[in-house]
Specification:
Shape: globular
CATH topology of the largest domain: Glutamine Phosphoribosylpyrophosphate, subunit 1, domain 1
Number of domains: 3
Strand order of the largest sheet: 3-2-4-1-10-9-11-14
Number of strands: 24
Helix content: 25-40%
CATH architecture of the largest domain: 4-Layer Sandwich
Number of helices: 19
CATH class of the largest domain: Alpha Beta
Bound molecules: 5-amino-5-deoxy-1-O-phosphono-D-mannitol
Radius of gyration: 25 Å
Distance between the termini: 10 Å
């Protein structure tokens, strides 16, 4: 939610900031802005409603020069998306500009106190309150900006990644972080600042992750300095990151989402590479071998996650209970953190997150750690807050996911969970050699089978057009594919704005069947072997009520072909891996329907890729 970027050095800042904002646009895209100090010492702020490209147009006839600057792309929390609420925000004197990602929870109290001291506000944002609080502290204490930031932040409750520029000190950016991501790129005589290292990877591979409660003093003439709110020096650890720039571009596809769907044969190959021996089928996850005793003795596993990662976790629950015989619970991180859960030291909490920055998941991790549980992470973004905040973990290694709708991360998460289940099951002796081999061979076959599913794209695009009229959809699945049904429904609603619900197929009779008519298509994932006959009965019941059916079936299934309106075939694979294959046609269907409806597929309304506020 919101992206921040900053630059200080010898180059013109604006092109670097704008490029960074484009790369951060997945975090929010309702307005954008930047602040620069030019050679004459003017602090210029330019901002407007809309996308980064709108800001670029707006800047055409402006003085956007300067070798120091900060910039922001917004996902509105306080105040509607408009020019005034866009960042950066000025302090009352106009001498300090601030950008902010996060939420200042006690902004109302602070604002009232500032109003009582004669302050007035232009915007409805909590961020404008913060910049004025900082100025107020500086003026009343007669201190430096850096000290004022530290003192002000001690009064703040909430989440923030902020960067501040001062007209009278064009050699310095002050930045601070609490619960919102922030990384500083170290260049040659220059510094870069961002919410996400990927946005500044063109310029450096050396990054310093700012930690919670830290303030960074980024001066163009001095080494980087980081202190805590009590002005005690903090350690500066440089992390080297390698990222291919091509992974951050659309590479000829119309949308990032389509690119990311099509990348899945490779991303799953990268996810399993070096972790399963193609010769022996043996799974090796260092996170499990390094913590063998913990997994052997675990009394319970609790998954905490949000959105798509929560759906993947539901599949993880099946896999682990099935293969490792450990009881599993799957929790929405946002609920878990607020409901006084029972967490014991012999519980393992697995936090699942693509971005590694989701605020609720981070809070759930903190809670689990406080209770003494061992916390394992399944993340995509290397070096993210969750990856750093967990005791151990496994990266899914699917590369940057930029489309707001999660696709390749979901299949990567489930693939990691399947490997995790095998590795733990082996350690605990709960999986037979035969089944272990069947699942590991299945995982090794995924890249080819995903490629086979993707070859159905034209067929899926064709049938998607037929159903673009629908205003509601139902998705049904059972067992391993019930979470895939939930995920299919989420994909459709978030990018096409069509209402969609996922249900376990057998639940239809308990209520949702009342909705069925010719206007309400039902997507049925009918790949399960044990419940095959029952699923056919569900399909018949829907047909009998005039409903239209799109069925996902195992390759060569002729029975359902005869009943359903449309059929999509899935290659044979061991049952527990079917959701990885069945999710892909559902991603494509959601994509094509959204494109037919003229939606902004990569940046759907009201959403942001990384949910760093509650
Ligand atoms: O980065 P995370 O996996 O923690 O994100 C969780 C959800 O915000 C995310 O999966 C969201 O539901 C996606 N938009 C789904 O496509």
């Amino acid at each position: 939610m919101c992206g921040i970027v900053g630059y200080i050095g010898g180059q013109e800042a604006a092109p670097i900031l704008l490029k960074g904002l484009h790369r951060l646009e997945y975090r929010g895209y309702d307005s954008a802005g930047l602040a620069l100090v030019n050679q004459s010492g003017d602090l210029n702020v330019y901002k407007c409603k809309g996308k980064v490209s709108d800001l670029e147009d707006y800047l055409m006839d402006k003085d956007a020069t300067g070798t120091i600057g900060i910039a922001h792309t917004r996902w509105a929390t306080h105040g509607i998306p408009d020019n005034v609420n866009a960042h950066p925000h000025f302090s009352r004197s106009g001498k300090i500009a601030l950008i902010h990602n996060g939420i200042i929870e006690n902004y109302r109290v602070i604002k009232d106190a500032l109003i009582a001291n004669g302050y007035t506000f232009r915007s409805n944002t909590d961020s404008e309150v913060l910049v004025n609080l900082i100025e107020y502290v500086r003026d009343t204490h007669g201190c430096s900006l850096e000290e004022a930031v530290r003192v002000a932040l001690k009064q703040v409750v909430g989440a923030y990644a902020i960067a501040i520029l001062e007209k009278d000190n064009p050699d310095e950016i002050i930045a601070a972080r609490q619960s919102s991501p922030m990384v500083i790129g170290i260049g040659n005589g220059e510094y870069f600042l961002s919410s996400d290292a990927a946005s500044i990877i063109d310029y450096t591979n050396d990054f310093v992750y700012v930690k919670d409660g830290e303030v960074a003093i980024i001066n163009r003439h001095k080494p980087l300095s980081i202190v805590n709110l009590d002005n005690q020096p903090a350690s500066i650890d440089i992390t080297k990151l390698e990222l291919s720039i091509s992974e951050l571009e659309k590479g000829g596809y119309d949308h990032f989402m389509l690119k990311e769907i099509n990348e899945q044969p490779r991303t799953i190959f990268d996810c399993i590479r070096g972790r399963i021996s193609p010769e022996t089928g043996e799974v090796k996850l260092s996170g499990v071998t390094d913590n063998r005793e913990k997994f052997i003795n675990a009394r319970r596993i609790i998954f905490v996650a949000c959105g798509t990662s929560w759906h993947a976790s539901l599949i993880g629950e099946h896999l682990i209970e099935d293969i490792c015989r450990i009881p599993v619970e799957v929790e929405y991180a946002s609920e878990f953190r607020y409901r006084n859960p029972i967490i014991r030291p012999d519980d393992i909490v697995i936090a699942v997150s693509q971005s590694g920055e989701t605020a609720d998941t981070l809070a759930a991790i903190r809670l689990a750690k406080e209770a003494g549980a061992f916390v394992y992470g399944i993340c995509n973004v290397v070096g993210s807050s969750i990856a750093r905040g967990t005791d151990s973990g496994t990266y899914i290694h699917v590369g940057p996911e930029i489309g707001v709708a999660s696709t390749k991360a979901f299949t990567g998460q489930v693939t990691v969970m399947a490997m995790l289940a095998l590795a733990i099951g082996k350690e605990r002796g709960t999986v037979s050699d035969e089944y272990y081999r069947e699942v590991s061979e299945g995982i090794l076959s995924l890249p080819d089978k995903i490629a086979e599913v993707l070859r159905e794209d034209e067929h899926i695009a064709g049938l998607s057009k037929v159903f673009t009229y629908a205003r509601n959809f139902i998705y049904l699945g059972r067992g391993y594919n019930y979470p895939a049904a939930l995920e299919g429904a989420l994909k459709l609603k978030e990018i096409s704005y069509i209402h969609a619900e996922g249900y376990p197929a057998a639940e239809m009779k308990h209520g949702p069947i009342a909705l069925i008519d010719a206007e309400m298509p039902t997507v049925v994932i009918a790949t399960g072997q044990d419940t095959y006959e029952k699923t056919i009965s569900n399909i018949e019941e829907i047909k009998a009520r005039g409903g239209r059916i799109i069925a996902l079936v195992r390759k060569g299934d002729t029975r359902i072909l005869g009943i359903a309106d449309k059929v999509i075939e899935i290659p044979e694979i061991t049952e527990c891996l079917t959701p990885i294959l069945s999710s892909i046609p559902l991603q494509l269907m959601a994509y094509h329907i959204a494109v037919c409806k003229g939606r902004n597929v990569d940046q759907p309304r009201n959403l942001a890729k990384s949910v760093t506020v509650e």
